[in-house]
Amino acid sequence: MLRIAGVDSSIDANVMELLLDPLPETGPAVVTYAAAECDSVPELVGSILRELETLAVGLFPAWLPEGEKLDGPGGAGMAAARVLAMRMATGARHFGPFLAELAAHAIQHRDSFTLRPTRGRAFPAEVRAAGLARVVAAAYRRHEVALVVYVPEKLSSHGETVLVAGCEWLAHQSGMGVWLVGPEVRRVETVHLKVPKAVALLAAGLPPSEPPAAVLRWPPLRGEPARYSEVEQAVEKALLECPWAHGREWNQTYPSNDALFVTIRTDLMWAHEKCVVELDGPEHLTAAKAEMDRLRDRHLDRDGFTVLRFTNEQVLDDLPAVLRRIKKFLLGRRLGLSEGAV
Fold first, then answer.
1. Is the dihedral of CA 113, 114, 116, 120 positive or negative?
2. What PANTHER family does this protein map onto (predicted)?
3. pLDDT digits (tens, 9 = 90+) for 266-322
């Protein structure tokens, strides 16, 4: 367990987002946790494990080979999920009984992304911590997971003791790297990182970061709509019925032509037509996020892309209108490209 600080620029939520979104090609899968002051270590650990269980359910079947072929959520699907999980655990570092129970629970709730109390076998916290870390790593095709913990401001002395002890326990039992970001805490080694110039330049122009809105945050899986996003799932479901929507790519990275700008992750992109569609949730209303969006859009525009932005409310209230706008742009761009090729 380490605390991360900058060498010549501070490490805050803005900087961490720029460093981790998109997730670097190498290294561990990284999820972030906004800690709150807790009265006891079991309370803190329990909170984190519940969030990780919700994540594991939401990432299913990405972590279970052949899991996408399962029917659900009936009894046959759950039984098949258990069989696949036990097969996956054979000769691997997964604990078969825990993985089987988690797979059955995940297929039961695969469309809800909410964790409901399991009625099956209960596992001790040590087993859950190690098993969940391995499952999340498998979903992202990484060997390891790191948990970035945002330290609350003005922790009491007792709260700080609980936070450090809980994170130490989690790092030891789960095998995850646990990185603390924020105020200095006692008994934790601080590692100073040199923030890449592109990130430092962009972060310097952003308003102060605000506390993370979600307790646990994680990157979407590349190549598919985010499983936790009702909006992205709704758009993809509609696009499946649209012949004109071919060539789309979800949650891909785009390296800007400007070497001093950060790599950009786009929600939805048609690379050939140079069209990017961004679907903005409430977090985009914060001053820092709005400014980051503006700068990203400007760089994409310089590289010849057109960015179409829609709020979650626009998608959920009038999805046909959103699709008509995207269709109109794509067909117009394709017509221009075909005329230019003549």
1. positive
2. BLL0828 PROTEIN
3. 999 999 999 999 999 888 888 888 898 998 999 999 999 999 999 999 999 999 999
Q: Do 99 and 241 share a domain, yes or no?
A: no
Four-point Cα dihedral 134, 140, 146, 152, nearest 10: -110
Q: Which amino acid is at 117?
A: P
Average pLDDT over residues 28-48: 95
How do residues 80-127 score in pLDDT, each as one tens digit?
A: 999 999 999 987 789 999 999 999 998 887 655 554 544 445 899 999
Cα-Cα-Cα-Cα dihedral sign, residues 285, 235, 61, 102: positive
pLDDT at 51 over 70: yes
Any idea what the Cα angle at residue 303 is, between residues 299 and 309, rounded to 5°?
Answer: 60
Q: How many domains does the chain have?
A: 2
Last residue of a domain, one of 217, 240, 257: 217
DSSP secondary structure of 288-303: HHHHHHHHHHHHHHHT
